[in-house]
Design a protein that fits this description.
There is one protein chain. With 146 residues, the protein is mainly alpha-helical. It has two domains: 41 residues, no CATH class; 81 residues, no CATH class. 51% of the residues lie in helices and 5% in strands. It has a two-stranded antiparallel sheet with strand order 1-2. The longest helix is centred in the middle third of the chain and has 29 residues.
């Protein structure tokens, strides 16, 4: 595209007509100035406060429902305490290097027993029981709510 620059920085009508005839592109000075004038400043963005989630209202419990809930909580708390006591008791076990220092005895309802004194088996059984107790305690703690 050809640019014609005069000393005052403005092209005359003849200069514009010559450029239009060569390039085929018409420049409408009035429309361009109007379009520039109509460009508006963007409106400032309003920052809204974050929306707090609305909790649904808790249903009003009857006296019977409240008593039942308290009894359920009491049962859950007792289960948790028993499991916690078992976990603490199990933590006291130490696995030694002597293969005959610890024993595991399993007995079924018919009186059949299985006994082992293998240290590796003993350690794995203790770890499995420990992990199971910890997960059961966590489940019960999640159920305890007011």
């Amino acid at each position: 595209m050809e640019t014609v620059v005069k000393k005052n920085g403005k092209a005359t009508q003849n200069d514009v007509a010559a450029i239009v005839s060569k390039t085929g592109i018409a420049i409408d000075k009035v429309k361009t100035e109007t379009a520039i004038a109509e460009v508006k400043q963007p409106e400032p963005v309003q920052v809204l406060a974050p929306v707090q989630p609305v909790e649904p209202p808790k249903p009003v419990l009857t006296l019977e429902q409240k008593i039942e809930k308290v009894e359920t909580l009491k049962t859950l708390i007792e289960k948790r305490e028993r499991l916690e006591a078992s976990r603490k008791k199990l933590t006291a076990f130490t696995v030694g290097a002597n293969q005959f220092s610890e024993n595991i005895v399993l007995t079924d309802e018919n009186g059949n027993t299985f006994k082992t004194s293998n240290t590796e088996v003993f350690a794995k059984v203790v770890d499995t029981i420990q992990n199971t107790l910890v997960s059961k305690i966590a489940e019960i703690e999640n159920q305890i709510e007011f």
